[in-house]
User: Fold this.
Amino acid sequence: MIGDDDTAQRYYITTAIPYVNAKPHIGHALLFVLTDALARYHRLKGDDVRFQTGTDENSLKNVQAAEREGIPTQALVDRNAGLYYALRDSLSLSFDDFIRTSVEPRHVDGVDKLWQACDRSGDIAKRAYRGLYCVGCEQFYAEDELVDGLCPDHLIRPEIVEEENYFFRLSRYADRLIDAIDSDRLRIVPQTRKNEVLSFIRRGLVDFSISRSKARARGWGIPVPGDPDQVMYVWFDALGNYITALDYAGEGEAYQRYWVNGRIESTSSAKTSSAFTPCTGRRCCSRRACHCRPTSWFTASSPSTGGRSASRSATRSIRSTWRGGTASTRCAIICCARCARRATATSRWSDSSAPTTPTWPINSATCSVAWSVWSIATTAVLCLRQEEFLQFL
Assistant:
């Protein structure tokens, strides 16, 4: 295996996992394709890569979507999860594993273990809370975070929710997170997103709710260990997928190989997850010098708002590259877009047919250029074919 080579490095590359309350859209395609390009880049270098994705199925918005359609929640998430998995063929994705958070025992057992590990560490406390809650974001907002009293992403008025929940004591980790991010021991790219996360932390981290009452969740979700009246908040549940997919519950071979002893690169869609996940991840093993946490974090526009942010950002990137480029640059973009268009129209490039050894001399510079060109090309194709892609879905 390439991972046994002395020069190879192990990379665990993950995407944000999307809610399945609706069909995939152009923002999801952008996220998956660019992450796929990163995985292919490392494989070309000869690295040992595990590319992980999946679906986030335990949210209240999934319940509400099923109610609107008049079908059981499980039926809705089963149907829509299948649409996301089908992107493997239509977008020629090369992911190694796909996890579903509502039906897989490895996930349920894993987040149960993660909850208990955080509880033993003193990171969980139960308290009463009253706040402004946006179902679309599945999160509470402070009043100063709203825009004219509306959720900044969904432009709807949050509802006032008052209940007793379990809270994760995120405030305990502010200094350690700032030190890790400033020193690039936890690397966040691009630099603008790193600055955003640091600014977010320096404004003051607050403890946040990681459970919901079973009644408000309509009985949908993973039960809190030892409390049958509460279910885990979807973010705590979903963010656990990065380790539960590796058999964290049983501390299996994949968990040891890629989480404990590998380099972890993750694409994220929120500042909160960039701050929260390292805090829980570092508690995942009992060793004194624990390194169970992401080493690189790639932040992206959230695809949960109908693809608006993702598609606008992609279009701006292509437009600026086009306007500022030379004639040869423009020609390269057109050629790459045409090649990528043909590639997306043909059958998937399967692992069995993909060359394990490149047919041209490979070095880090070559791979970097190849990854950049592929990213630009696929982004261009997704922008150019947005209407066709949406009709196809």
Remarks:
- The chain has a mean pLDDT of 75.
- The longest strand covers residues 124-134.
- The CA atoms of residues 284 and 292 lie 6 Å apart.
- Residues 309-392 form one domain.
